[in-house]
Amino acid sequence: MVVAELQRRGAEMLRRSGLEDAAFDARQLLAHVLHTGSAQLPLWGDRPVTEGQQARYLQLISRRARRYPLQYLLGSWPFYDGEYLVGEGVLIPRPDTERLCEIAIELAPGLPGYSAGPAICDLCSGSGCIAVTLQKHIPGSHVTAVEKSPAAFRYLQKNIALNGADVQPVLADVLGYEHRCPPCSLITANPPYITAAEMAALQPEVCYEPAMALAAGADGLGFYRAIARRYLPCLLPGGALILEIGASQGPAVTEILKNCGYSGVFIARDYAQNDRVAVARRPAAG
Questions:
Q1: Which residue positions form the known binding site for substrate?
Q2: Which residue ranges does the record assign to the Release factor glutamine methyltransferase N-terminal domain (predicted)?
Q3: In terms of domains, do 194 and 261 share one?
Q4: What angle, 0 to 180 degrees and rounded to 10, lies between the N-to-C axes of helices 3-16 and 22-34?
């Protein structure tokens, strides 16, 4: 069997399973098995595949057809301009989260302490995609990444090394770390924010991801209340808190932040025009 024929077979198996992106997934998995980039596959269409490669590919296709996450099968996934190892126990980096990083990088020159190298703390850090991106794109930044889950923490450590980032990983619960948090120019977080009702309706793939990184109780706002209240004193005057939020949570998170004493609160949209990022400041005189 040659590459093109095997790819068609894989795509057809995924289409029959009901996957919308069957061709894309089949192409990515075959490139993974052949240890090449997906753009190379059309040039390899007539190249024979070994029996071992065929068996490995069809095994991956079978797991993907059962809705096991493509990213976990590949073992890594791109985010911003980096690559991040992923697997069971860690949340998969998503394009929506890149918007948080873009906003943080844009705001960085106006942060207190920027000229001396801003102190940044990324809460609920997971794979480390936010922490690593900010450290690499905000000159002189001193970044701490806080993660509670031992499984996710192992990925955090590996991804810091993989991307050559100068990030300090901390294994700790963010609901308590505020007592150890140094004064920060910027605090970021992509906390759990999915409601109980939303959890029940998620795509099958998401069920393989760690529930503790997703589920946030009845209204999905518990972590925002806790982080906003606990971490305001950790910000330098004029420092910023930047949070990823659910598409329907903008008004509620805005109210939480204002009630906790933040100023300059605004909600930014992602590129699908959904509310996605909440930005707030500790008052300069506070």
A1: 190-193
A2: 5-75
A3: yes
A4: 140
